[in-house]
Q: What sequence folds into this?
């Protein structure tokens, strides 16, 4: 269950037979908003226990793809299986961490209350949290090193701490699949390192972790696999195997500037870039 | 007159005791539902739904049906209509609310103006008349408030999850849309049962103000609901005594007390720096 599957798809080819060992199986999925397609004909398998970064330009469909897997958006066409069944069947085993901008941080809610939300589907309506639920919350907070701040209002936390709280919620839910929208955007490198260590540890104990990111360096260095997404899947596999200049050019189009040493500089969109990211060949 | 006399004297009147109980119940219901309303940024919906109840009340009155029932149908219909139209029309929610709010109220006013004889009872729904509440109305109110609180207690976790993080809740399999609709229905019911106490024009304050005041004072959602409910009850009691002592309209007195408390808390918390423990 912990085994990772090496380069699975490059340019849409699927070298392995598609089996039930997959956490997520996406077949020919297209989706978008209004009549504008954000993703087209996506075919992608994500192995159990994999740690995958979805990267690509703004408007490349990263969040759309994540939302389709989460069951928050219905694909126009194609099918998605999560843990061997249609999206939604195993929803209680799927945890979604929204982008930081989509959360109201002035909400009067304490850290442990947020983490306890992860138990909601398990407890079910009418039920109330019991000892096992409280233990799960405490353990999850321990795992992300936030136990000392359980009573804080979430708005009092730093950006990195806030994300760790949401990851703790996924842990408390005992989810199999963690879907994170931009978990390392807008945090400093030390914080990013902390978050990635947690996600790495979760993948090591068999959780399937999928995160969108604008940070190509982080995607390449800290994730097992990357998905280069620009409306379509440009490449999927370990960064060192699939990331090359051609893939980056296809993914980012005209936003690459070649350097004299043969490397390229990626000019990311102005809304999210914190200085240009570098991608060396 | 000693303070004890001031507090005890009005209790000799049955109508005052009934009004006290009714206002306190309404205060709790409004504050609890209001906590969700404030955090979802839905105060304007509360205002729209209360005004939308008016044509329902007038129609029920004209047909000789229970006016509360007419108000409830119109309020719930409008609340769900706002939800559905917002999802389907592609217009912003506040545009839809603005249109339905004014349109429904205009319908109420038009029908109201077409009634030839004296319609004093209907005026009570505009500004509230809790001192005139009957025993049977008070019993009905109590039953509805208890039912409302039981529903919220039963689905507390789900409502909180869907309010705080609709995406996370949806991914975890919670029926976020149905919970939204449930909340709209709870808002509509709360408003309708509050109309006799504070009236159409002021009920939105009973929903918004205690919850907004509580939000400035607490760090936990569990605390917010308790503090909001406490404020709701306190304001109901204090407002009624004010109304009795100064001969003011009861609904207005309650709302003014809540507003004053809100301003005091706003002032104190902004002076101290928000949430500095």
A:
């Amino acid at each position: 269950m912990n085994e990772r599957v090496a380069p699975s798809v490059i340019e849409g080819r699927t070298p392995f037979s598609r089996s039930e060992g997959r956490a997520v199986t996406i077949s020919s999925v297209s989706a978008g908003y209004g009549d504008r397609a954000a993703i087209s004909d996506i075919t992608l398998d994500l192995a159990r226990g994999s740690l995958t970064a979805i990267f690509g330009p703004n408007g490349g469909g990263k969040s759309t793809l994540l939302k389709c897997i989460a069951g928050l958006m219905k694909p126009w066409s194609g099918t998605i299986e999560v843990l061997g069944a249609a999206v939604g069947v195993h929803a209680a085993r799927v945890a979604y961490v929204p982008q930081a901008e989509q959360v109201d941080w002035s909400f009067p809610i304490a850290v442990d209350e947020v983490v306890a939300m992860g138990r909601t589907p398990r407890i079910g309506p009418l039920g109330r949290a019991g000892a096992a639920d409280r233990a799960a919350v405490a353990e999850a907070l321990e795992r992300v090193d936030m136990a000392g701040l359980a009573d804080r209002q979430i708005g009092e936390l730093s950006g990195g701490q806030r994300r760790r709280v949401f990851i703790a919620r996924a842990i408390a839910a005992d989810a199999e699949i963690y879907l994170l929208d931009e978990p390392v955007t807008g945090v400093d490198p030390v914080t990013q390192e902390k978050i990635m260590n947690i996600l790495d540890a979760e993948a090591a104990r068999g959780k399937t972790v999928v995160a969108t990111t604008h940070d190509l360096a982080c995607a390449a260095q800290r994730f097992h696999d990357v998905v280069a997404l620009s409306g379509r899947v440009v490449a999927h596999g370990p960064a060192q195997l699939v990331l090359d200049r051609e893939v980056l050019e296809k993914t980012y189009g005209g936003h690459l500037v070649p350097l004299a040493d043969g490397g390229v500089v990626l000019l990311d969109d102005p809304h999210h870039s914190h200085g240009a990211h570098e991608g060396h060949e | 007159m000693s303070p004890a006399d001031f507090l005890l004297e009005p209790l000799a009147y049955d109508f005052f005791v009934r009004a006290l109980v009714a206002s306190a119940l309404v205060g709790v219901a409004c504050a609890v539902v209001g906590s969700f309303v404030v955090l979802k940024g839905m105060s304007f919906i509360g205002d729209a739904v209360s005004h939308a109840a008016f044509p329902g009340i007038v129609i029920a009155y004209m047909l000789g049906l229970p006016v509360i029932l007419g108000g409830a149908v119109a309020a719930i219909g409008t609340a769900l209509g706002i939800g559905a139209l917002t999802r389907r029309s592609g217009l912003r929610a506040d545009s839809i609310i603005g249109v339905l709010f004014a349109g429904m109220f205009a319908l109420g006013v038009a029908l109201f103006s077409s009634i030839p004889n004296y319609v004093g009872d209907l005026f009570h729904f505009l500004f509230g008349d809790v001192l005139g509440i009957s025993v049977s109305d008070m019993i009905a109110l109590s039953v509805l408030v208890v039912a409302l609180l039981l529903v919220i207690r039963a689905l507390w976790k789900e409502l909180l999850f869907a309010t705080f993080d609709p995406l996370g809740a949806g991914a975890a399999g919670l029926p976020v849309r149905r919970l939204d609709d449930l909340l709209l229905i709870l808002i509509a019911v709360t408003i309708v049962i509050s109309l006799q106490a504070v009236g159409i024009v002021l009920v939105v304050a009973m929903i918004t103000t205690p919850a907004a005041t509580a939000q400035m004072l607490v760090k936990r959602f569990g605390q917010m609901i308790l503090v909001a409910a406490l404020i709701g009850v306190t304001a109901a009691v204090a407002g009624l005594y004010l109304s009795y002592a100064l001969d003011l309209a009861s609904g207005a007195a309650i709302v003014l007390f809540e507003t004053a408390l809100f301003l005091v808390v706003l002032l104190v918390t902004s002076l101290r720096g928000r949430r500095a423990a």
